[in-house]
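Pilot study result, target chain (172 residues):
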Amino acid sequence: MNKQVIITLAKEAAKFYLNQSTIIGVTKDMPAWLLEKKYGLFVCFFDYANNIRSQAGKIYPGQNNLGQEIIDQTIKCINGNNIFKPITKSELNGLKLAIYIILKQEQIFNLDLLQTGQDGILVINKNNKLGYALPQKIPNAELLKIACRHGKIDYQNDNYKIFRLIIKSFVE
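Predicted structure:
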């Protein structure tokens, strides 16, 4: 996977969408790994102070290939959601882009197995409610609390499984 290719694809998808109100598609001249691989991923835009401006993504792939997944999640990120306002054409150039590709998930029984700042966490309770947290440079126990809060899972009293999300980060 090539950082420049991934960042460029997401940026071009965002610019094209904001300028033309049209979604670009994958093309046959893209690298084979963009057309053949499938991963869940998250797209995040950050402001000048490194605060999240918008975020969208999926733990599991929803598209036919990585290229289309990057485009799809970038457009969802641009459009905003119930947490983030849509990104405007005028602010796009002032934002920094990060893409987190989820390469693998593995159940863990000890938080010490997480690589702080590199791995994310997925939690799933007995009712299949799930929460996640992307990599951050904070103690692993805090990352777990964020994942539980995101999934509305009681950190102290609920019974849940913990999965390590092995993530490849591509940050502008």
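One observation from the pilot: The helical segments are 3-20, 32-36, 66-79, 89-92, 140-150. A full batch analysis is planned for the follow-on phase.
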